[in-house]
Amino acid sequence: MEPAIVCRALTKSYHTGGTITPALRGIDISINAGELFMLVGPSGCGKTTLISVIAGILDSDGGECRLFGTNLQGMDDNERTLYRGRNVGFVFQSYNLIPSLTSAENVAIPLLLLGATRADAVSKARAMLERVGLGAKSEANPTQLSGGQQQRVAIARALVHNPKLIVCDEPTSALDHTTGGEIMELFRHEALNGNRTLVIVTHDARIFHYADRIARMDDGRIMQVAQDSADLQMEPTHT
Ligand SMILES: Nc1ncnc2c1ncn2[C@@H]1O[C@H](COP(=O)(O)OP(=O)(O)O)[C@@H](O)[C@H]1O
Ligand SMILES: [Mg+2]
Q1: To which CATH superfamily is domain 5-230 assigned?
Q2: Which among 31, 112, 195, 230 would be 20 to 30 A from 90, CA to CA?
């Protein structure tokens, strides 16, 4: 069986005002279905860029990235957006919640994009908010929520449409230890029981033990893939 994610010789540079910043310098990696895979490394080493390419949000310059056997680079923008909508849930570092909508309406968005009725989407969104411990805040706006609560809304939005792949940028950084642990238990459950693949960028050493494998990145490259965080040749640092 092909792994859930296969990246081969993946490269990406940013071009801004005559400056070229290499962000990925040849990434080779494969991640299995049902695996909880973490990515660690210093700020600026390319973690967000890599998960954005994997999630089909960003185009690479070279190499290939296959998701469940499908080469995203071969798709046009519409096809890729559709594929992503069905198969990928993304938790952004900055949450990206829409302030004028309630929590439940924010969580309902992926379902609405897939054609669900409003009533059905909002009812599933409420159930998902219950699962992340935020049922009581379904009708609140993001501005009325703490950072940790907003993060849980963003996580509920990434899970609500049952995507095969969930990609998260620092999902527990704004959460206290107990809530962070609860969120990781939920992710763990999703990976094991839903046969979902999770790719999680983190600096949070307290959650390393939830990972099946941890990859350490530096300067646009994967330096090491470890099964046990104790084997990582690094000091965990801050963003
Ligand atoms: N939109 C962008 N435009 C220009 N450079 C960028 C952009 N996003 C990221 N970079 C640069 O690419 C490199 C990798 O960034 P990023 O993937 O965000 O790293 P990380 O998530 O590990 O902190 C850094 O040098 C960063 O400054
Ligand atoms: Mg980042």
Answers
A1: P-loop containing nucleotide triphosphate hydrolases (3.40.50.300)
A2: 230
